[in-house]
Amino acid sequence: xxxxxxxxxxxxxxxxxxxxxxxxxxxxxxxxxxxxxxxxxxxxxxxxxxxxxxxxxxxxxxxxxxxxxxxxxxxxxxxxxxxxxxxxxxxxxxxxxxxxxxxxxxxxxxxxxxxxxxxxxxxxxxxxxxxxxxxxxxxxxxxxxxxxxxxxxxxxxxxxxxxxxxxxxxxxxxxxxxxxxxxxxxxxxxxxxxxxxxxxxxxxxxxxxxxxxxxxxxxxxxxxxxxxxxxxxxxxxxxxxxxxxxxxxxxxxxxxxxxxxxxxxxxxxxxxxxxxxxxxxxxxxxxxxxxxxxx
Length: 295
What we know:
Elements: H1 2-16, H2 19-38, H3 54-77, H4 82-87, H5 89-95, H6 100-132, H7 139-166, H8 170-203, H9 207-219, H10 222-235, H11 238-243, H12 251-258, H13 268-292
């Protein structure tokens, strides 16, 4: 299939340019260094949750991973199409038996393979490090962490590739991709709180309704979705995982407002679906715009 050829070439280009090796080394350092330095080298105390097991490492890493993996994925993918458009190689690529959808989907798969393989090497090395430092290795929760991290990387590769398909230059693709990323990381929670405040003033929505709205908006953020899905595995409860998205002082009011059983639209399946929206919608929009664009 033609999109497979595009993906294969994209991956091979990453190998030849040493992108793959640089990313792999970076993920090995990002994942393995905390395991060795904090849990093996005595630099500080392990987190209380899951202390003495690999779960302590996962609690420690989830925040940093939710920030770094999306950023690295955007760096890898934001110019995947625009750079070829600017250099003129895109016209050559399309002169071969490749359609425009082959280019978009092939780029998503090729860049995802680069990010995914680098992550896999990093987590395998880290698994060995966790065993070496003497932590009890909880393989099921660790596998959940690996799968969710791979999904997070795929989501942001797809998002950045979709932006690259729409943008006319790499600079614009970078500005849009990093701008949305910064909004997710820095401003999303404030945005959720502001929406709840507007509901209170405009529609006289009560505290319970505001807290439910804040939680729903938070879960629409793929980085927050990643963390709360991992918390489900670590805490053993979807309800507790959702409550921990709130600050310490609002957790009890939030727990009372949301109530048990947990509404289905706050459940793991729906939260995973919210993450996938950030993959499929940008890729679909990017393809539709790219399909009719003049090169």
